[in-house]
Amino acid sequence: MTLRISIIGFGAVGQGVADALMRTAYPIKVVAIADSRGAVMDATGVDLASALQRKRETGTVALPDTDEGAVADTEGMTALDAIVGMDHEIMVEATPTDISTGGIGLSYIRKAFESGRHVVTSNKGPLVVAYSELCGLARKNDLYFRFEATVGGAMPAINLSNETLAGNRIISIEGVLNGTCNYILTRMDDEGVSYEHALGEAQELGIAEADPSADVDGIDTAAKIVILANSVFGMDVGYDDVDVTGITKITPESFKLAKEEGHTIKLIGEIRDGVLKVAPKMVPRNHPLSIGGTFNLASIQTELAGRITIGGIGAGSVETASAILSDILWIEGHQGLSPDRL
After folding, report:
1. Are 122 and 323 in contact (CB under 8 A)?
2. 161, 309: one domain
3. Is 256 assigned a catalytic role?
């Protein structure tokens, strides 16, 4: 049986999902794609190559009213039309993150569950704002809710903790969870440059946003810590429960002092003894958390298996799409099994 999915949100991550699906031979059919300006729907399967080209050339995936070939006229159609009106099993939600309100993605996830769709998302906002509510909606409608891509991109921190390490009590998790911050701190350490210089370099390379505050103020890392706390530790917390300090006040002198003691400085997010914290920390240079560049790393302390450390590319459209594809295939393999029995 061919699995039918929708892709709601066709920015970098949504396009990465389309790109990943074009590289695979899995029986997955995209029957709807929506962005902020319209949608394209086709019960026989959307032409992904054409959708990607159209997005690049026109800024939207929607077909003009004069075009033919899609099942529905698409320029005036919305994501909600795609979620509700097109028969499919899984909604992939990849709209922009808003950790204050949950953003439009929160309403899309609610509507998907109400419409009988499983959900796979890369969007941190809805999980930070309404994790318990959304998990409850999924259970109420006997549906799956998967979100590996929200923490660490291609690094499988959530599913490793909950599935591969099932039977272990997770004692603590600490990690380098933001590639932008890690790049800036690595450059400051390696070259002795100022924070401002390293940030400017990151922006020129496209590693940092024009407004980098979500990264450098520790907001992104804190959102990931909230998701890990709720999904792995069974907590019920939000952003305000995290003690957050960013990297903007770190100076070259800070690195000089760290080097004298054989350490470097990393922005570490951690969950330990019920305490959630994000802050720059001195890390021994031979420690697993002393990882360079834009990489992410998580160190998971378990009761039975000891310390498990995993790393990987924490961002990037195709890398994030790999986590989404993994969750899609997990759902495909578990269809027909009640979520309450797993």
Report:
1. yes
2. yes
3. no
